[in-house]
Specification:
Helix content is 26%, strand content 29%. The protein is built from two helices and five strands, in the order βββαββα.
Length: 90
């Protein structure tokens, strides 16, 4: 199962996933970083992006930190890479 390493930035205007040319993943989230709201928003947004159920995502680490690891079940490494490639920024 693929694991996504990312940096979360709460309090953004809109949810947005950005993949830098070096492969660094940043996700801007509308939710504030309090009471787990940003983590819930993150998992919901990633479920939407990857087209999987929210229950198939697991936050492995970074519950209270900006750098997080999220495991994505139901996807192969190839499908995972193809979806991320769509969010590549020049």
């Amino acid at each position: 199962m693929p694991v996504l390493h990312l940096k979360a930035k709460p309090n953004a205007r809109a949810n947005q996933l950005l993949v830098a040319p070096d492969g660094t993943v940043t996700i801007r989230l509308k939710a504030p970083a309090q009471d787990g709201k940003a983590n819930a928003c993150l998992l919901g947004y990633l479920a939407e992006v990857f087209g999987v159920a929210k229950s198939s995502l697991t936050l492995l680490s970074g519950h209270t930190a900006p750098f997080k690891k999220v495991e994505v079940a139901e996807l192969s490494e190839e499908e995972f890479s193809q979806i991320l490639a769509q969010f590549q920024v020049a």
